[in-house]
Amino acid sequence: MSREQNIRAQESFGDAVNGGKLDAIKTVVAAKFVDHDPAPDQAPGPEELINFFTELRRAFPDLNICVEYLVADDHNVCFAYTITGTHNGPFHGAQATGKKIKARGMQIGRFEGGKMVERWGSSDQLGILQQIGKLPS
Taking burial as the number of CB atoms within 10 A of a residue's CB, which of 16, 76, 96, 99 is the most buried? Predict the structure, then answer.
């Protein structure tokens, strides 16, 4: 697939997460998808991404992931992002605080046939936990 098709697939993924229409992830993530930096207890496949983002949106219902910088080729889409939201549900053992969070992250996605097949990434979860008062700053 082309660079542009992979970028469109990544944008569709982002739209699904930001809009809370998480079943749409299945249209752009391959059944054999492997996350090389999974959340605890996350198994391979698009369903596990849907479960992860369901929990994240439960904790931060106004979750927004904003791409700040993106670079892509015919196989990979890499981007830096900022995640924002309001802590209105349980997150890693912390009950809702109503506090706003803002954190940075990066992701590399490898695509085949217009679908993401692998992902490597990292976000500032420590910063999020500090912002909601779960950990000292």
Answer: 16
pLDDT at 137 over 90: no
Q: In whole angstroms, what is the distance from residue 88 CA to residue 42 CA?
A: 23
* Amino acid found at 85: G
How sure is the predictor about 51, in pLDDT bands with cuts at 50, 70 and 90? Answer: very high
Give 121-129 contacts, CB < 8 A, sequence gap 24+: 121/37, 122/37, 123/81, 123/83, 125/92, 127/101, 127/103, 128/83, 128/91, 128/101, 128/103, 129/92, 129/94
Q: How many CB atoms lie within 10 A of CB 94?
A: 17
Distance CA 116, CA 125 (A): 23
- Among 54, 56, 55, 9, smallest CA distance to 33 is for 9
